[in-house]
Amino acid sequence: MSKAVVVGYLAKVSAANVNASHTEGNVVVTKKVTLPDGSAVPYISGQALRRMLRDRMEDLGYQLSEPFAKVSKQEVTPPVRPWEFVDEDLFGYLDPSGGRRRTSPVRVSAAVGLFPFPGDRDLGTRSFERFGEAMSAGGNMFETELYSNLFRGTLLVELDRVGVFRALETGEKEERTLSAEERRKRLQTLLEALNLLWGGGRTARMLTDLSPRFLVYARLKVKHPIFLEALSASYEGGRYVLELEPLVSALEKSCDYREETIFGIEPSVFHNETEIREALGSHGEVLSVHQAIQRAKGDVEALWSQS
Fold first, then answer.
1. pTM of the model as a whole
2. 8-state DSSP, 229
3. In this structure, is residue 150 part of a structural domain?
4. Nearest to 119 by CA among 148, 142, 140
5. Which of helix, strand or coil describes residue 167?
6. For residue range 156-180, what is the model confidence (pLDDT) as tens digits?
7. What is the domain extent for residue 126?
8. What share of the chain has pLDDT > 90, as a percent?
């Protein structure tokens, strides 16, 4: 019986600051994590990615719970109707007024850049002359740290919890379970949301497409983020080179637990695309990213058929 779906992916950012940290003076600082050698790589927080996935699921037709939440000072009380609101189902909630809480069945890692942050900055300015002032009044100047990078992320879905709501989570007397059709639809929409991923800060002037340039989908007999540290790349000849050894090692390690594996790769992104297809073809079907997402959505159709 399948216990989890895991998706590992690589997203390309050409020039942006998707998820800023704080402001130092007039500089908007990007979020970074320091490596053991002292260098720093940018990252996009899991919270930001979950926000983007929510927004894309709303774009795809699902009503979110937030307009129905009650706000009192600093407390936000969710409606606690996960059978009605997909975000409460997939991303969880906490009711501060009582014991009702749901841990998210969808686990999302931060998206971590594979290359060090070089210190680049974008310079912006606002001229007071545009607001009717004299040119001598000057204006405001500000800077934003930005980067070009390839980001690695992982998404894990606990299949036995999607569309299943325990009494302790809802405050009701009995457990609720959605129909198999609705459970499949919610998971398929989540996969489509990943295929359409974009968002973050400063999109007015630094719009970024965060949809995967490479992904690997696996349906597992166990719950384990098998691709979390398996995706890495180098940069050669103006294109990325996917490092195959850690990915193949992860695939071989998990061979007894994988029930289905699908790969997606965007053309002309990776210098070693032919090698990638040859190395991964024995582990699963290698398609374009769009085709892989559609095939994964088709794979989901077999879930919960006995419910």
1. 0.94
2. T
3. yes
4. 148
5. helix
6. 999 999 999 999 999 999 999 999 9
7. 4-300
8. 83
